[in-house]
Amino acid sequence: MTTVNTSNLLAMRNAILQQNSALQKAAAAPAPNPLTGAGAIGSATAAPDGNFASTLRGAITEVNAMQAKAGAITESYERGETTDIAAVMLQREQASVGFQATLQVRNKLLSAYKDIMSMPV
User: Fold this and answer.
1) Beta carbons within 8 Å of 76's beta carbon, 6+ residues apart
2) Has keyword Phosphoprotein (predicted)?
3) What are the domain boundaries of the chain?
4) Is the dihedral of CA 98, 103, 104, 105 positive or negative?
């Protein structure tokens, strides 16, 4: 069993304070989107002053850009210009996840539209 003395306590206190400040810095920094980094699809929905149509149009445009970028990097890999298969697969997965999210939003919108249309007047 270790004895507790003032130097050990001060060392533990300093370690805790350093960890606390590192956690505060990490919490204060904006979290990157795992799909596309800092400028992601979520940035299109973060603007509260825009209307729904422009927000949806912006999200679809970003998904289209992700798919185009994934296609370009895939073609680059097939030509032998790029050798980083991990970057190619990551870009393809990002485009796929973005497309799947857009597809799910479309499905929910269609479902809501059908529900509204079937409501009695």
Assistant:
1) 82, 88
2) no
3) 32-117
4) positive
